[in-house]
Amino acid sequence: MRRTVLIFALIVGVLGAAVYWLTNRTDQEAALDTSVAVAEAMGDSDTTGYARADRVVDFSFPEDHGPHPGFKTEWWYITGNLDSEGAATIPGQQPGSSARDFGFELTIFRVAMRPPSQQPVRLASGDSARSTWSTDQMYMGHFAVSDITNETQYDVERFSRGAAGLAGAQADPFRVWLDDWSIATVDTADAPLIDGAFPVRLRAHGNNAAADLILTPTKEMVLQGDRGLSQKGEGEGNASYYYTYPRLATEGTIVIDGDSVEVSGLSWMDREWSTSALSENQVGWDWFALQLDDGRDLMYYQLRNKDGSASRYTDGVVVGPDGSTTPIDKTDTSLEVLDTYMTPDGTREYPTAWHLRIPSQDIDLRINAAFDDQELNVSVRYWEGAVTVDGSSQGESVRGHGYVEMTGYGEGATSPTVGVQ
């Protein structure tokens, strides 16, 4: 998830509000008051003039690692489970008693405020007719570290204009950044880049936490949905272009309250871009990214209707140790809530334990939050956190780690019911 991973109306509303405010200010020091902007812009879903994900296309790299400004929204999403002794990367091995366990998320979002046809005309000199600080693109970032050992989450949010070098994205060499947060290609003179971009270095910090990590794919990219076209709702174009790196070897440092810890483990990267929103009856989604110790990876998401039921636009994939993929859908899955967590302010109740069954793959898993309170209470409140996995598959015990993202809980949404699938 990542986010994830967040192409839909909840995020678009926040970004749209922020950009509207920023693009109508001319001074560099303008401060962002999202509390007013969100109320004004939630529900803005005008897609006129933007490109749509309405057909299967051929992906090209490194170009598609970069931005797609013709589409309204896109994101670069990375999550991972890390350990100070590297136990998370060793199949079947339990973390040592002295190990520290962490989860992390970094997501950078881009949203276009105007379709290409409405963007300002260039002067004959090639210069824009407006201020250097003006922009048609807005970037938002979410960074979080879950200190699993101490059951504490550190999260922070940033906004910036896609102008004057403050935030942006480029394909070659690959780099996406928001102020001094970044995901960027590591120059490897002794080996060719994987898909024109990897390995990458991730750097982010804030709210007494920081991450500096190197990520290298150990499996090939997975094109989600129909060869990368992932349908999200009714109607042509209500879809995204979506690809995943389900398993990235990760090493580096996590810093908590000034304490630097050497870590290693596994990460997951999602890329999506679209001009899409939740359908009228959809309120949010539950998204699972699981990495099993038998070498398989699993992505599963369900879009939720207002009554709490799963939309028929529910999808997923099982990725084998060799990178082979097997699609799964709503008819082939059973997801039961086993436990829930109420936020301290009493406004949102999130599932925190699940029973996931996929009969066709002989997969039977119990998924548990590493700890309950992993909600990001930022401009859009959602739960994004590390989970542990145990169960069975094909007659063998299986364990693993992963990340779960849940949006659209509270504020009129039907609360989850324990024991209901």
UniProtKB/TrEMBL annotation:
Family annotation (SUPFAM superfamilies) = AttH-like
Signal peptide residues are none
Pfam families hit by this protein = CrtC (PF07143), Lipocalin_9 (PF17186)
Gene3D superfamilies named among the record's database cross-references: AttH-like domain
Q: Which InterPro entries would you find in this protein's record?
A: AttH-like_dom_sf (IPR023374), AttH_dom (IPR010791)
Query: Which residue numbers delimit the AttH domain?
Result: 73-275
What name has this protein been given in UniProt?
Carotenoid 1,2-hydratase
Supply the source organism for this entry. Longibacter salinarum
